[in-house]
Amino acid sequence: MMDQSITSVFPEIKVLMNEPLSKYTNTQTGGPADMLVFPESVTETKKLIIWAKETKTPLTVIGNASNLIVRDGGIRGLTLILTKMNDIQINGTDVTAEAGAALIQTTEAAYQASLTGLEFAAGIPGSVGGAVFMNAGAYGGEISEVVSEAEVLTSDGEIKRLNNRELDFGYRHSSVQDYHDVVISATFKLRAGDSNRIRARMDELNRLRASKQPLEYPSCGSVFKRPTGYFTGKLIHEAGLQGYTVGGAQVSMKHAGFIINVGGATATDYLSVIHHVQETVLNQFGVELETEVRIIGEEK
Ligand SMILES: Cc1cc2nc3c(=O)[nH]c(=O)nc-3n(C[C@H](O)[C@H](O)[C@H](O)COP(=O)(O)OP(=O)(O)OC[C@H]3O[C@@H](n4cnc5c(N)ncnc54)[C@H](O)[C@@H]3O)c2cc1C
Ligand SMILES: NC(=O)C1=CN([C@@H]2O[C@H](COP(=O)(O)OP(=O)(O)OC[C@H]3O[C@@H](n4cnc5c(N)ncnc54)[C@H](OP(=O)(O)O)[C@@H]3O)[C@@H](O)[C@H]2O)C=CC1
Ligand SMILES: C=C(O[C@H]1[C@H](O)[C@@H](CO)O[C@H](OP(=O)(O)OP(=O)(O)OC[C@H]2O[C@@H](n3ccc(=O)[nH]c3=O)[C@H](O)[C@@H]2O)[C@@H]1NC(C)=O)C(=O)O
């Protein structure tokens, strides 16, 4: 029988074996990926998706790992990190970015072209693919309001174009979460604007963000979604949980909705803090906090 191993089938692709994902996640926690690849093109991504399907290898796709907790046992099978697929093209008032492009770079490119509409995303540290997947939003704006279409690869390796309606956006939700599609690019429909005003708005939002969020520490942003009718940070604050620490994971004193890595945290520490916060808020206020952060991988 032919050798179907990834290194035999794709000798030209660099595969990192048993690679610690804590090197890549924003929380700096998480166990190893059995096989980790940074694909450099859609063609390469497509080949790997088809290989994973044919060999029944579990497949995981990651962007900038800024909304992710990988359990300490790591991820079996093949993991793709798309950050090397990061081309950004401008065509009139359309900005088309590959999935691995940083959202922050994409907002900079829009500013350079005097295009308005993406300023709200200036400080969101995800990739374009992760932002579409999550329908990232801040300060009155959301990805859903600016994306005209996204290209995805299905698990069969077919390319599909999904328009805004088909992406079925909701609060921190898109249809990509309901299927196993991989976002490979997105097009943002913007408007001609004044570059000084665009820059001023981006700078203002980044200052506001830095004054409220603990950007000095590794984190995964808001850990929980906002429950209808409540403010998450306020609930956790009023429950007296700020400063609550397990190992190296701590409920931030600056913003109670964030859990920061104060040094040496494991994913298990993060999960213990999350569980305690959920239980305490439920007991004190009767409100269920649903995680916004995506939790994947195996326990150690
Ligand atoms: C300091 C800080 C501030 C933040 N502020 C905000 C904010 O204001 N608003 C906000 O919405 N979020 C915020 N976040 C969270 C995070 O940046 C966003 O959710 C972002 O959209 C995640 O993108 P990512 O590329 O990092 O995704 P990842 O963390 O890599 O992945 C998140 C999920 O998306 C999936 N995914 C990623 N890329 C793809 C793809 N190409 N195809 C299919 N699935 C994919 C992954 O499988 C995973 O389930 C913040 C995070 C931090 C650390
Ligand atoms: N759950 C849902 O369905 C909804 C989710 N969202 C999401 O929430 C995020 C933030 O929304 P945003 O665009 O900033 O707009 P919002 O109007 O929802 O919030 C703006 C800010 O106003 C302040 N604020 C307003 N009312 C109160 C209050 N009663 N108590 C305490 N603080 C208050 C808070 O800021 P401060 O820190 O300055 O006090 C809050 O962060 C976005 O990412 C959006 O996607 C938004 C609306 C609904
Ligand atoms: C950081 C993220 O997104 C952020 C986004 O950057 C900002 C700006 O628009 O609005 C949301 O945060 P937020 O700070 O408004 O969210 P909440 O945790 O609901 O806090 C709102 C309110 O709680 C109060 N609050 C917050 C923190 C705290 O320690 N104490 C406190 O009392 C404040 O009054 C604050 O205004 C997004 N979070 C969610 C879950 O929707 C993310 O999704 O990862």
Automatic annotation (TrEMBL):
The keyword Acetylation does not apply. Pathway: Cell wall biogenesis; peptidoglycan biosynthesis. This is UDP-N-acetylenolpyruvoylglucosamine reductase. Keywords: Cell cycle, Cell division, Cell shape, Cell wall biogenesis/degradation, Cytoplasm, FAD, Flavoprotein, NADP, Oxidoreductase, Peptidoglycan synthesis. Belongs to the MurB family. Its main location: cytoplasm. The active site is at R172, S222 (proton donor), E292. Transmembrane segments: none annotated. The keyword Cell cycle applies. Residues 29-193 form the FAD-binding PCMH-type domain. It is found in: Cytoplasm. One of its GO terms (molecular function) is UDP-N-acetylmuramate dehydrogenase activity. Cell wall formation. InterPro entries: FAD-bd_PCMH, FAD-bd_PCMH-like_sf, FAD-bd_PCMH_sub1, FAD-bd_PCMH_sub2, MurB, MurB_C, MurB_C_sf, Oxid_FAD_bind_N. It catalyses: UDP-N-acetyl-alpha-D-muramate + NADP(+) = UDP-N-acetyl-3-O-(1-carboxyvinyl)-alpha-D-glucosamine + NADPH + H(+). One of its GO terms (cellular component) is cytosol. PANTHER family: UDP-N-ACETYLENOLPYRUVOYLGLUCOSAMINE REDUCTASE. GO terms for biological process: cell division; cell wall organization; peptidoglycan biosynthetic process; regulation of cell shape. The gene is murB. Its cofactor is FAD. Its EC number is 1.3.1.98. Signal peptide: none annotated.
